[in-house]
Design a protein that fits this description.
Bound molecules: magnesium ion
Oligomer: single chain
Shape: globular
Distance between the termini: 50 Å
Structural class: mainly alpha
Strand content: under 5%
Number of helices: 7
Radius of gyration: 18 Å
Length: 119
């Protein structure tokens, strides 16, 4: 089995259909589930220093990986239910990001695009 996002989309769709869960997988519910999983991810980093967040112990890193997987699965399911090509959308957004944040202008800065235009 390859590791493509398309394979994951097919696997998640089959998993859902086998359980008759399509009835619950509306874009509204999937987007809410996605945010709930993102909150579970954040809990692992809450109160850590930046250095600690970069050097997670093995068990914590495994747990973080599981939350990232949950997020990815819900993201793929959400895009699938909306018939959005996630890879295409992400590449298109990267092009927009490159225009909004030209490297020569933002290198080393954490300012947001709106702040860049003010300066
Ligand atoms: Mg989770």
């Amino acid at each position: 089995m390859s590791d493509s996002l398309e394979d994951l989309r097919c696997q998640a769709a089959a998993f859902t259909t086998e359980r008759d869960w399509d009835q619950f997988h509306s874009p509204k519910n999937l987007s809410m589930a996605l945010i709930a999983e993102a909150a579970e991810l954040v809990e692992h980093f809450q109160w850590l220093t930046q250095a600690q967040s970069r050097d997670l112990p093995g068990d914590k890193k495994e747990a973080v990986g599981q939350e990232l997987a949950d997020i990815l699965i819900y993201l793929v399911r959400l895009a699938d239910t909306l018939d959005i090509d996630l890879i295409h959308a992400a590449h298109a957004k990267m092009k927009l990001n490159a225009l909004r944040y030209p490297a020569a202008k933002v290198r080393g800065s954490a300012k947001r695009a709106a702040e860049l235009n003010d300066s």
